[in-house]
Amino acid sequence: MPFASRTRLRCATVEDARAIAELIAIAGEGIPIWVWREEAEDGRDPLSVGAERAARPDSMFSYRNAILAEHDGEVAGMMLGFRVDQPTGRNWAALAAVPSPLRPIVELEYRVPGAFYINALAVFERFRDLGIGTRLLQAAASRATALGCTRLAHQVFSGNRAAVRLYERNGFRQIDSRPIEPHPGHSLEGRVLLMVRPL
């Protein structure tokens, strides 16, 4: 059976919260685990904190904003995205209180009001090179169109060449960037790239 016919996309449910957290952690290359560890109490597993966030129906990182890819019945990948609101003066004023490793990411997100922002897209390693990332990007475009968005936006670390190539192959172009801020969750260097694709 062809690989494509063995993969299906579906809307996530609250039962998928743990898998969503695992895939957000992969997409964020250390940053989500660091954030969740800061929030964890009494030595709790950071992924459990992430799963609790994903299980909330009213969170930006909610399962309601996620589309999952399943391959042979197993969760293989995920796209989590939402429409970016126009930042207010209050949003900009609050930016100074955002932890420095996250500030460049928030600044870049504010650059694309009205866009459908792909906050996280990841595929588990054993399911890579099956075209699942491309299918999730297609699903993001469909969801964006349904929400009246005219472009997709995403951020990627410059050192993740495979991800940069995936987005370029799918019509994304870099419009801005910020230096990566060091933090305990990763040792990445380079820049955070803001990439967009018109719809």
TrEMBL record:
N-acetyltransferase domain span: 7-199
Keywords: Acyltransferase, Transferase
GO molecular function: acyltransferase activity, transferring groups other than amino-acyl groups
Keyword Acyltransferase among record annotations: yes
Gene3D superfamilies the UniProt entry points to: 3.40.630.30
CDD domains: NAT_SF
Keyword field contains Lipoprotein: no
Transmembrane segments: none
Protein name: N-acetyltransferase domain-containing protein
